[in-house]
Amino acid sequence: MLYGYAVMIGILEGLTEFIPVSSTGHMIIAGHLLGFTGPRADAFEIFIQLGAILAVMGLYRERFLDLIPGRKPRAAAIAEAGRASGTGDTLKAGRPGNPGFAGWRGIGLLAVTSIPALVAGKLAHHYIKEHLFSPITVAVGLAVGGAGLILIEMFRPKPEKTGLDSLGWREALWVGAFQCLALWPGMSRSGSTIIGGMLGRVDRKTTAEFSFLAAVPIMFAATFYDLYKSRQFLQTADAPLFAVGFIVSLVSAWFAIRFFIGFLAKHTLKGFGWYRIALAIFTFWYFSRHAISG
Length: 294
Prior knowledge:
single chain, 13 helices, 0% strand
């Protein structure tokens, strides 16, 4: 039974971590429905997030390698090779004096995006864990975030920035501020950052990709902090169970990210918004009825 739960929760984590529906919210709801709750389950759910993080790092490995200071960005190398060979490759890595999303500038952009949520998360960590990790509070986050996705698609400003290399400090800070909303379980980190990016006049696909990259430092910090806090519940005997969840999360996140980027090329985010609202209504109904009958 436990390995079956590990597979189900691993799939759920991987599929929902980087699309705007809230992986934490889904795991809280699923955990209560399946009876997979408690400190051991919490530690498992925290650990398997590392699989989803690894999927992003694998899919965007060139982007992360470009962050190494002194390394020529891949885009610039391709453009230089294209000019030398006469192929006319026009791929660019930013303007002169602006290396785009690379080197120290890229690291700085990620830092600016990450710091607001790291500070707010540290200050509010205890309150969030004590009061917001319930199906009803998750339903609130799902409904509010779902309405936000629908509204941003209806009234979004005209995009002025396209491509990761076009992003600047203003966009990074704007996305970072909205990332703080994801501290409420159910709001969704990717959903909050995508809404923030689109309000900052970044096109939908670019803000989604930046959301993926910005997830890595914040998720690493939050995951290792939570694992440290839960270290007394980690046992060697649970290693196979955790390994199964980790691998399943990694594989499902890999496919989810590829699907999501392809989806955004042809569709808006409204469908995710309506899905969230429907799940919020179900969650309110089911757990309110369960509480009354209990």
